[in-house]
User: Fold these one by one.
Assistant:
Number 1:
Amino acid sequence: MYDLTKLDALKAKLDEHRPLDAAVTASLHESLVLQWTYHSNAIEGNTLTLKETKVALEGITIGGKTLREHFEAINHRDAILRVEEPVSQQQPLDEWTIKTLHQLVLKNIDADNAGRYRSVNVLISGAEHRPPQAVQVPEQMETRVVPHSSTGAAPLCGRQWPHLSLADEPRTDEKSRISCNGD
């Protein structure tokens, strides 16, 4: 589990300055989406620089870079924008949303696997954590998104939405990054 004390303190400090000007909010949002997209893709081996990622998100192709790298950036941004609505409405995570995000991330990259759980076993190089066997993924995902009977809330909601990309890999393509952290 994560200690979010420092994050809570920073949010409280930001809240002291609310309401923020709409232009400031839009600028912060654009910067966050750009940074998140760049770093997420870079971790997975995408060679676009931060500036190239910004240009790709503006719809311009970069010479010497693959179309896949462009689609990875565009699709990641689109998945972020898609997930903002349920997050803003504090809706619990459900399987349909996970699969929709997965489809968005793999759009124009891997149509055969988009929106589907992986059917092969995977390992994460250099990690002690072992993702579940492929046959276990649907059941494990179900237990993570089925609402708790007492609260009606799903195990993954609120603050945990940004951490969907961390661990158990319900997909085959290492670049697709839509999964749930079981730790």
Number 2:
Amino acid sequence: MLLSGNDNQFENNIIFCDTSPLITDIWSDTLIGYTTNEVKEIVVSTKDNYKLYLFLDCNIKWVEDEVRFLPVENDRLIFQEKLLKRCQELGIQYHFLQGDYESRENNAKNIIIQQEWFLKK
């Protein structure tokens, strides 16, 4: 998602990360059956480095490519449940975006522009 252009409300410097130690934790558990203590410690020590967590519902049509895993919808749901449960355990507040692609993008933009840190220029 690109937040820039002619609209001044999107001129702040923002970086979007599609992975983090938290995601590594869940993938590790999913792919090899456990997460090392080192990864768990990194998750805890870095969770506050991210100002906003936006998660997309996994209920979209599967499109296979060389970097995607979990083509079975139930497996994606289990992964999603693990992720959201881990957030709750860690006290991470997040926004869960659903709907079609356009709705998700619009909701994400609206959430971002309402953030106190975003409003400060």
Number 3:
Amino acid sequence: METTIEPTNEANEDHIRHRAYMLWLEEGQPDGRAEEHWHLARSVAEAREDMPDAVTVSKEKQNNDSGFRAGWRPDFSNLTV
């Protein structure tokens, strides 16, 4: 049985390496978790590859006053803590 592995471009590999390093730092530099950080960073990179580069919103939705608008802020003044 032959296994083929698609070549990973160097920029993607550098991104994964950097993200794995950042995860390691964020978790307090634990010993023995390099593989876990690598797999997590790689999973995130692969998920991003599957995402569309941009989302198109129709003019109708952009002009719809029932949705969120730029500059809109929620009113939390009536909330108690």
Number 4:
Amino acid sequence: MAYRTTDELLADIGQDLRQLRKQAGLSQALLAQKAGISERALRNLEGGQGSSLATFIGVLKALRQDSVLDALSRPAEPSPMQLLRQRQQLRGGHGQG
């Protein structure tokens, strides 16, 4: 994999987001509204001018592309109800058989 500077990565990501937006048939105004950001923030992001992480995540979610973040985020912890069900299943499983 070739080395890319931060500026090159920002430009590439911006171009990719622009392409995804266009493929989805969304204007910058509509995507910005769906993402809860300003059009200017979206223009900056698409233009590779940098942006906040919150803006980037909002745009990914609005484009339904936030699965790309799965590799970076921690797995969700089970809810207390899920833990209780698991314990009940384990207890029930040991008593039978």
